[in-house]
Every structure is written in structure tokens, then in C-alpha cells.
Amino acid sequence: MQDVQSLSPKVAAEELKRLGEILRRANAAYYQSDAPDLSDAEYDALKRLNAEIEARFPDLKRTDSPSDQVGAAPSEGFQKIRHSVPMLSLGNAFDDEDVGEFDKSIRKYLGLKADAKLTYTAEPKIDGLSLALRYENGHLVHAATRGDGTTGENVTANARTITDIPDTLSDAPDLLEVRGEVYMSHADFEALNIRQAENDGKTFANPRNAAAGSLRQLDAKITAARPLRFFAYAWGSISAPLADTQKGAIDRLDALGFPTNPLTALCDGPNAMIAHYRAIEAQRATLGYDIDGVVYKVNDLGLQGRLGFRSTTPRWAIAHKFPAELVWTRIEKIDIQVGRTGALSPVARLQPVTVGGVVVSNATLHNEDYIAGRDANGQPIRDGKDIREGDWVQVYRAGDVIPKVADVDLSKRPEDAVPYEFPTVCPECQSDAIREEGDAVRRCTGGLICPAQAVEKMKHFVSRAAFDIEGLGAKQVEQFFADGWIKEPADIFTLRDRFGAGLQQLQNREGWGEKSAENLFDAIDEKRTIDFHRLLFGLGIRHLGEAAAKDLARHFTDWDTLAGTADRAASEPATGGATRDALAQSPAWGEFLSIDGVGQTLTQSLVTALAQDHERASIDRLVQHLTIVPPEDRASDSPVAGKTVVFTGTLEKMTRAEAKARAEALGAKVSGSVSAKTDLVVAGPGAGSKAKKAADLGIEILDEDGWLAFIGDA
Fold it and tell me: What is the pLDDT of residues 181-201, one digit of tens each?
């Protein structure tokens, strides 16, 4: 490091010029090419030197100084913004029948007859990156990506560079969060790739990747140079309604200055929705931007409010995806991957082929029945054609990013191709791989002694919906696991103590430096405080998904209570073959089974996992490092917040599903059975044993009118 104090003004000016050129090249290599040519430590040292010279000679600071660039250190990334209203994904429909089922589910939930008028909007589903724009008193205050739906990345500086996004609004609600999609047109995408190639920069595989990469630049100047566009189609937090209908609200957004899609139309029922879908599909190739389907939404915003949300999707909207693109290629090899639950998953290694603008080299083969050409019931699929190494197969992508095999061309099958023999031992640890009766999947019995299961559990633990530790993704987990640094989740939280603040071994790794190592430690420390449902989901217990994790967290509120109940369930008499009703008579089992959305299969899986000595010890070691945050009381001032409510009998003014959703939105726990812990029973006509048991226990019973009066406008 140079002695800044000994520099003359002339030498200092030359040094600032040299440092500026080096750091600009480093930024371009990192931000544009994803190929850094400096380590974090080298980059940080040069930035510090540049800043020290500028402090010593402030009048020599250059107008293009690296000190003024947004996102000084690549590893620092974006600040996080928590969405005041979650940004959820959409459920998918893949054919006309699915659209009809969507309409039926809406009518059933709302209690509408088949001939009752119900209007929907239909609009193109833009293939881009979701963005939320928050305006206060007409001024843009921040912009955030969807992230995990709860927390997104702060890309405000970048969003301000997009000409389609107004910086100020006139005649808008005091608080307005506009949501939409950032995209890139086909023409702009082609021009960008030409410029990138001419400047030896990174070229992009498709417009969506180009748009996402451009919006998420740490340097807003790079974003400003990219031709990004924006369509508005929804809203989040808002101080006053935009309109009474979805279409009216979109028209209001258009009047406020936001681009909205001109192909948005009103449709009276499934037939009209499908007809508009066909019309948009026919125009798809000439639109000039990528779409991957059509989104249907209930037009009446009052009905949207009644329908509400599932754990990850709104009930009132669905995405009707376009048919998958089909291509033929050759299977070079069939590999077996072992997942976190021990499942042996076959994967076809393909001769690379482009499907829907994406180069595909792998496809899922689901399980051994699928390879053999039969379904779970033993009936033929693909006309009974099995799949072998060397086969020419038809590959498609639909609704997700995992390609699938649709068909086999037997006329091109090699003469020496032999039927695939599915392994009966784990390829990773050689433990027996068994297939239980009724299970479509063969599973390794090795548990945590199986390295594949252990590392996959660790990957799941750090996934976005679980602990979501910045800088510790699947790639880093594999690296740290292979090096023996982490073998179980608790090891993550002892890294700093075991290796020290510098973590010299990590610094010696390519792509890591002192700053990035310290950032990782800080990110780990941030997740020592974790929401209860994220902890539960992160444990990777079979059948325990995000929605069930939230249901369990709301019911038990803390780890000790849940674990203690599971311990009691494990110590109760053997339950093999017992029915749900029989199990519900057991106090601990009944506690789990009383939770709406938690069934016998999940309960058995959870109880079994926590009863395994090695797995329980691993979880106990983890919990010692954590502060577990109970679920937020979403309506602490409501009259039913924290109360356990049971609905029984026939409800006449709302459906059972609507009543449950409303009660949960007010902070209540909805149970499927009556017990001494029940606070309130809502009984409609036809209420039977539950109402009688509630009366015997002295529990308050209300009819439907009484319930509605009790909750009032809460």
C-alpha cells in the first residue's frame, strides 16, 4: 500500500486516474460479465486507496470517481425491503378444463350458483421480473423486487432509470403501491446482445434474463443504459381504493401515467376467458415481447376481498399457461440423485437442446414406474414404452423450469439398449433403498449417514423460504460440506467462533475475501432470530411444507410446546393402522389432528422425525443458537384474536372455507374438533356431535348471525 501522505499532487492525480480505470474494468467484469477479475480483498484495497487519496487531495477528486458509484462492493448486494402486503405467486391452469375448475372453485367458495353472473379480467402474463413501486404523497419512495414474496431487494435507484415508471403522480391516493412487470422487448433485447458482443460483454439467453439481470445491477448507471420497460397490473398497500373493480383499477393506473397492457379484457365466464386466451395466443409471435400465458382475475374487488389468499397464492386469480414447446433429443445417461428425504430421483442427462429459448441438458424421469412406462396404478403410460439410455425422447417444459420427457421414438432405439434397472441400494452410501407400500418413490434408509441426504437437507435449510442466509446458497453449502466445515445446520452458527473473524481458509478460496467472509458471518448472525414457521419449514421434515409450517406455528406459537406435544405423541401407545378418528382420541395426537390443514400423514412424519435420537439431537443443537419469533398476531385487537374456533353444521351466509379464512385473518385458530381448549363454537343448522360436546364442556356456542355480529367490522 502506498504512503498517501508522501504523494505529490501530480502523482496523486495520475494515481486516481489509474485506480479509476482499474476499478471501472473490475465493475464491468463483475456487473456485466459475471466474471470478476479481482478478488474481493484486492478490490476493497484499491477502493480504500482511492478514497484515502481523495481525502488527502479533495480538489483532485474526479467527476467519474469510483467512490460515487452505487454499490461500491459487489458482495454487499442490495438492502432488503419487507413488503407490507405479500407479493404472492399465481396458481396455474394448463388446459380448458383447469379454467372451468377455477371458475367452479370460485363459485363454490362464494356460494354462487352455476348460472350466477361472475365477470373476470383476462390479460397477458408478461415473462419478466415483478416489481413493487411505493408512492407516498405522489412521490416514488422505493422500489422492490418480489424476493421471497415477503421481503424483496431495494432497487429504487435502478427503477428510477426506467422511463415507463413515473417519479411523481398527480391525483393519486396518499399511499399507493403499484405492482407490475419489468420486461425487455424483442427488438431491444437483440440490440442489447449485439452491443454486448461488440464490447466483449456478457450476452443473454433470453429477454427475461436480460431484464432481470439489468434491473438487479448494483450500479444504477448500468441499468439506465439497458432498455427496460414496465407494465402495471396490480397494487399492494393503498390508502384509498382505485376503483370497485379490477378493470376499473387498471384503467385508473393507466390514467395516472403507468403503461398497462392494451390486451386486457372483461370476460363473462370460462368460455369467454378461453376465447380471449386463444386470441392472445394467436398474436403471441407478433407482440414484440415475451408472454407465457394469460392471467384471469375476478373483476369485482369486493369478491376478491372475500376470496382472500391461500398461503402462497390468491384464490381469485390464476395463470393459464401456454402449451409447452416439444423437442426431440437423445438420452446420454440416466443418473440417480438422492434428495433430503432420501428419495432416489432419476434424471435423464440429455444431448443439449433448446426448449422455449432455454438450453436444456437434464430432464426429470420422476420414478421407477415412469421409466418402466406405467403409472402408480400399474396402467400403461406412453403406450407402455419404457425409457432407456440411448433413447431419442420428446422433451417439454410446462409450468415450471424442470423439463420432462413426453414420449420415446422406438424407431431410433439402439439395438444394444437394455431396460433400465432401478437401483435397490443408495448410490451415495450403499444403504438399502426401499419402496414402502403405497409410495411411488424408493428411498435411502441411511438417514443422516447418507452424505447426499445431509447436504440436501442443508441446501433446503438455507433456501429462500427457510433461513435464506445471504451469501450461503446451494453452491456454498456443497463447498463447506465437502470441506467438513458444516455437517448439520447448527454448524452454520458456529462458523465465526470456530474459524475466527478472518476465516483464513475461506479467504484463500477463489471469489472470497476478508470483506465477503465478514459479510457472510454478519448474514448468519442476522438469522439467529428467525420466524417460527421458517424454522419448521427449514428442518426439511417430509410432508412439512410452507403452508403446514405456518399452520403449526400459529397453533403452537413456540418450539418447546410443539416439541413437547410431539414427544408425548411418540410415547403414546403404538398407532400402526389406527384410523384418524381413533388417533384423535389420543391427547397429543388429537392436538395435532385438531389443526385445520394438518393430517395423519404429516403428524406421523413430524412425530417420527422428532423421535429419532440423532435427528432430534441435531435440532436441539440448532435451537440453542436461535431466538424463535412467534407468529405475528395479525389482528390483535379483534375479539377472536388468539381464540380457538370450531365451525360445525351448515353456514348459510358464507361457505365454510370463507368463514375459516375470515376467522384466521382476524387472528383466530380454526380447529376441526372440539376440546377443552376450544373457546368458541359456531353452529349452523344440522350441527350434531360437536355442538353437543361443546355444550357438555360449557363452551360458548353462537349461531351464524351471532358470529357475524360478534366479529362485526373487525
Answer: 999 998 999 899 888 888 877
